[in-house]
Design a protein that fits this description.
globular; about 70% helix; mainly alpha; about 200 residues; homotrimer
Chain lengths: ~200, ~200, ~200
């Protein structure tokens, strides 16, 4: 089992748990929760694979399906423990977007897209599982609310990836540093309550 | 006209009618109703074809477009008759998911996916037309409400398909039995009011 | 820079501005506005490219990304000027669907789809950027409300395209006339307040 796959599975676990926890608020049945956990964890990667015309990963490699099912069952059983761990939920979600961003950037690179498109692909991989989850739950996607630094952390992480390529660093190190930039940016932004200002027009004007 | 195509068209008719009937509640114009009927009847298959990287069926074979248009026109003209037929609507919808599940499983098999993925493909084919319809109408997809056994009927039908392959039965028989399992499971669940229990966490805890 | 590309860029500018203006009402941050502008302007074309299994245009040709970014920045800076230009917003949106319809029809033709499917592809290209924008903002897509002639203008424009092919006209002329049919149809319909009648069933009946 290589480095890339382990990282990918950690991301699936992280997003499945955040998916289970948000869908349980909607009083769904276990199968509904499983589907939402599944969409949250592989939705971004699926959209990425469709866009870059690659085979959809979870359809060829059963490990993703198994990890989502096992994680969902554990998360449902231990839900009363999990609900007291709000900070852990945030942590899982943040680690997830960090991992997925860099996975997406690398997938884009291997399909020979230009850096700006690779960063977009990384951001889509990281953010659209959550967007699809929110659409399915009929909510305005969290991504578009100005409550949190989210997509911009992915963009900074993706930019770091291409910056680091100028130095002769190992692939693993670039991966870890770029992912950490995403995780640290979002964590600091939440801790210090930093947000982008909202821009709006008064529709009554 | 082969067996497979006839079954497919019956599914399109069933889903178009259920699409027309649910969109008419939203006071749409005839074109809006047609688009919703179209998405409801070919949306699940389109998502399936994108995921397994097959050509999208309705774009190459005009019969689907014609069937949706003719069915929609008839359903609009005879809407006053149809509205008294709530049970028929349920019947059409149920037959539709039964047919689409098995069609999806077979498409997955012919693209050489593993059984668990084929069952997922069948369930997506059957359920996501309705999910897309509900998203377009800005409602929480019916699929995720705990009101009815729905996706689990598809999963049982898909499982039956693979179980029956161990016996030396004809393709048509396996098709009919698996589809019937979906239809009967859902019908019995509605008749006896059987549901999966909802799992939730008290968000105020 | 050929004729096709210039027209395409004008469409991106038109839809980006309409995307910025509608997303600013939701008090999003600049990045959220950029993403909505992006989805509004390339979403229809992306869905089209996925359906016809063509490479997604904006991922290979960076000009689209650049145009959306520059347009969004300008639209945000000059938002106070833009808000007084409600008629211009309508104009931009209408020009956008006119251009996109014909671009979609031509893409469908070059992939050798039948005329009715090409018209559907043109309508999807023109309308689904707006549909995706509305779904992301958690609103019922404008397309399905009976307030305005919208999709039917695209269908008429697409039909005009195939009608004009019987006469020996230049490609550019067919393009301009068909696109104008879309723009004029929608403008006249709004000016004279022409709508399709809504069809509905009384759900209490």
């Amino acid at each position: 089992m290589d480095f890339f796959l382990i990282i990918n599975i950690l991301g699936v676990v992280a997003f499945s748990i955040s998916g289970v926890l948000s869908s349980m608020k909607k009083k769904m049945d276990p199968l509904g929760i499983l589907i939402i956990a599944f969409v949250a964890s592989v939705g971004g990667g699926t959209l990425r694979d469709l866009l870059i015309d690659a085979p959809v990963e979870w359809m060829r490699d059963l490990i993703y399906v198994h990890v989502v099912i096992v994680t969902t069952i554990f998360a449902i059983i231990f839900r009363k423990k999990l609900v007291h761990l709000r900070k852990s939920i945030f942590l899982f979600d943040t680690i997830g977007i960090g991992l997925y961003t860099v996975i997406g950037v690398e997938k884009g690179l291997s399909a020979e897209f230009s850096p700006i498109i690779c960063i977009a692909i990384g951001t889509i991989t990281a953010c659209f599982g959550g967007v699809l989850r929110d659409i399915l739950c009929n909510e305005i996607p969290l991504l578009f609310k100005t409550k949190e630094i989210y997509a911009i952390a992915c963009i900074l992480g993706g930019g770091t990836y291409f910056l680091l390529q100028y130095f002769q660093l190992s692939q693993e190190l670039i991966f870890i540093v770029s992912g950490s930039v995403v995780i640290i940016t979002r964590s600091l932004a939440v801790y210090f309550d930093i947000r982008l200002p909202s821009v709006y027009i008064n529709s009554d004007e």
